[in-house]
Amino acid sequence: MSNRTLGVIGGGAWGTALAQMLASDGREVLLWAFETPVVEEINRDHRNSPYLSGIDLNPAIRATGSLSELAGLPLLLVVTPAQHMRRVLVGLPEGPGDLVLCCKGIEEATGELMVDTARAAAPGRPLAVLSGPTFAHEVARGQPTAVTLACADEGQWDRIAPMVWRPAFRPYFSTDIIGAEIGGAVKNVLAIACGVVEGLGLGQNARAALIARGFAEMTRFGLACGAQAETLSGLSGLGDLVLTCSSVSSRNFSLGKALGEGRKAADVLADRATVAEGAFTAPVLQRVARARGVAMPIVDTVCALLAGDVAAGDAVAALLARPLTAE
Ligand SMILES: NC(=O)C1=CN([C@@H]2O[C@H](COP(=O)(O)OP(=O)(O)OC[C@H]3O[C@@H](n4cnc5c(N)ncnc54)[C@H](O)[C@@H]3O)[C@@H](O)[C@H]2O)C=CC1
Ligand SMILES: O=C(CO)COP(=O)(O)O
C-alpha cells in the first residue's frame, strides 16, 4: 500500500464502481467488502459478480474484509447501505482521513441523515458527501457523469476533489451537506412512485407531472431541514431525481414498477440481494416530515403502497383527487 492508496467501504455495486473509477488513473484502491466470497472473487478474478456483473475490475483494486487495514488512508468513500452504515463505521479504527459519504438514505431507527449518524459512529473524522446521477454500471464502464461533492469548507474540497476527479467523473463544489444528502435520500422514494406509474401504464405525461410534484416535495422538505434551494435543483437533487425516475435500471424505480403491476413489496424485496433504499427511507422520511409539518403526499402514497394498505390504482386515484391548490 502506498501513500496514494484510497479506500472504499462497501463492496456492493456502487462501492465497486467507485473503486473502479478511482483506480482508472493508476491509483491503488483498497475496497472493504462485507461478504468473504466477494473479497475473494475480487482478489482472485477481478470480478464482483453478485453486485457488479459483467465488469472486469482494475487489478489495482484490492479487496479486504478487515476494516483495520483502512485505518491510515487519507480518503475513505463510505458506500454501505444506509441502514448498515452506523455498525460498519463503529468498527473502523480511528484515523485522520476524510470520510466521504456516498450512501443515500435516512437512518430508520433515529431519523438521522447519514452525516449525523457518521459523526456519532466515527467521531473526529472530517465528513463530506458525494451524490448525484450515478448508475453504478455506467460509472464502472467509464461513461461520464458529474456529482455534487459537499464539503465542510474550501480546505476540505481542496484536499478531496483532486483525489476523486477523473476525466469521466466531475465533482462540483458545495458546502450544503444537508441539501446533498436530502436530494439523494428523497429521490429514491419518488423513484418508487414513478415506477408505479410505469407499472400501471399511465404514460409519460403522468411521470413528468409526478417528477415535478415530487421535486416540490423534496424542496419543501429540504428547505425545512436547512438545505439550500440551489443544491436541491442541482446534480444531487433534481439531477438524480430525473435519472432515477426515468429508468428501470434503478432498483427503486423497478420496485415501484412491480408494485404497479400488482406485486407485493415484501415479495419483490425478498427476491433481491441488492438494496432499494427508498423502501427503508419512505417510512422514516414520512415520520420526520410530519414532525416538521411538511406535507409530502407522494411520499405518503409510497408508504401506503409499501405497507400494502392500498392498491396501486386506488393510490393514484386518491392522489389525483386531492383538493386543488396553488403550484
Ligand atoms: N447502485 C448504484 O447505482 C448507486 C447506489 N448508491 C447508494 O450506495 C449505497 C450502497 O448501494 P449499492 O452499492 O448499490 O449496494 P448493492 O445493492 O449493490 O449491494 C448491497 C450491499 O449491502 C451490503 N450488505 C448487506 N448486508 C450488510 C451488512 N449486514 N452490513 C454491511 N453491509 C451489508 C452488501 O455487502 C452489498 O455491498 C446505497 O445507499 C445506494 O443508495 C448511490 C449511487 C448509485
Ligand atoms: O442512486 C442511484 C443513481 O444515482 C441508483 O439508484 P437505484 O438505487 O434506484 O438503483
From TrEMBL:
Residue span(s) of domain Glycerol-3-phosphate dehydrogenase NAD-dependent N-terminal: 7-154
Localization in the cell: Cytoplasm
Catalytic activity, as annotated: sn-glycerol 3-phosphate + NADP(+) = dihydroxyacetone phosphate + NADPH + H(+); sn-glycerol 3-phosphate + NAD(+) = dihydroxyacetone phosphate + NADH + H(+)
Residues that coordinate or bind NAD(+): 10-15, 34, 136, 251
GO molecular function list: glycerol-3-phosphate dehydrogenase (NAD+) activity; glycerol-3-phosphate dehydrogenase (NADP+) activity; NAD binding
Pfam families assigned to the protein according to its UniProt record, in alphabetical order: NAD_Gly3P_dh_C, NAD_Gly3P_dh_N
One example of a Gene Ontology biological process annotation: carbohydrate metabolic process
Binding site for NADPH: 14, 51, 104, 136, 251, 275, 277
Keywords: Cytoplasm, Lipid biosynthesis, Lipid metabolism, NAD, NADP, Nucleotide-binding, Oxidoreductase, Phospholipid biosynthesis, Phospholipid metabolism
Function: Catalyzes the reduction of the glycolytic intermediate dihydroxyacetone phosphate (DHAP) to sn-glycerol 3-phosphate (G3P), the key precursor for phospholipid synthesis.
Entries under PANTHER family matching the protein: GLYCEROL-3-PHOSPHATE DEHYDROGENASE, GLYCEROL-3-PHOSPHATE DEHYDROGENASE [NAD(+)] 2, CHLOROPLASTIC
Protein name stated in the entry: Glycerol-3-phosphate dehydrogenase [NAD(P)+]
